[in-house]
């Protein structure tokens, strides 16, 4: 004997299995704070820690170096202006965690101790430091802002080995 399920049972089955799957996959990666959307066509707020030759602040306060060049190019790729803020690493990471900055640069390595305050990009370049040790360079973005992080990492994967 064959038993048939009423139509509403099938609808209930679909609602419980298919709909949650499609909803959960619709907007990944996401930015809970909207960083990529706000920065695109707007202003990228970048904290700069002095770390020559990657980042240097000259006498007139304008940052220079290989990482500042990369950041300017990334900003251009999302049609953004760049506003730089120079300070020490600890202060910049706190401002990043509080949402006052979108990015922190300054010769950060993949062994950075700041992972509780920032999402580190994948390494985009490998350099030898003054002690002959290999270092993998990263940048720091806000925790949870995954769409922004993915866009930045895609850019760095294409342009990052210019160190």
Automatic annotation (TrEMBL):
Gene3D superfamilies registered for this protein in UniProt: Periplasmic binding protein-like II
For whether the record's keyword set contains Magnesium, the answer is no
Q: Please list the residue ranges annotated as the Solute-binding protein family 3/N-terminal domain.
A: 44-126
Q: Which UniProt keywords apply?
A: Signal
Q: Which InterPro entries match?
A: Solute-binding_3/MltF_N
The answer on whether this UniProt entry bears the keyword Signal reads: yes
Identify the stretch annotated as signal peptide in this record: 1-29
Name of the protein in its database record: Transporter substrate-binding domain-containing protein
Record the organism: Arthrobacter zhangbolii
Q: What is the lineage of its organism?
A: Bacteria, Bacillati, Actinomycetota, Actinomycetes, Micrococcales
């Amino acid at each position: 004997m064959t038993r048939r399920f009423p139509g509403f049972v099938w609808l209930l089955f679909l609602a419980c299995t298919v709909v949650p799957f499609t909803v959960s996959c619709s907007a990944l990666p996401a930015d809970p704070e909207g960083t990529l959307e706000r920065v695109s066509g707007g202003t990228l707020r970048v904290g700069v820690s002095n770390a020559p030759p990657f980042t240097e602040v000259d006498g007139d306060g304008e940052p220079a170096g290989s990482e500042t060049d990369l950041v300017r190019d990334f900003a251009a790729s999302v049609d953004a202006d760049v506003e730089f803020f120079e300070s020490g690493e600890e202060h910049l990471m706190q401002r990043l965690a509080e949402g006052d900055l979108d990015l922190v640069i300054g010769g950060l390595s993949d062994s950075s101790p700041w992972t509780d305050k920032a999402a580190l990009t994948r390494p985009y370049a490998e350099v030898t430091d003054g002690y002959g040790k290999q270092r993998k360079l990263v940048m720091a973005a806000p925790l949870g802002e995954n769409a922004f992080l993915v866009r930045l990492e895609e850019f760095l994967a294409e342009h990052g080995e210019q160190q």
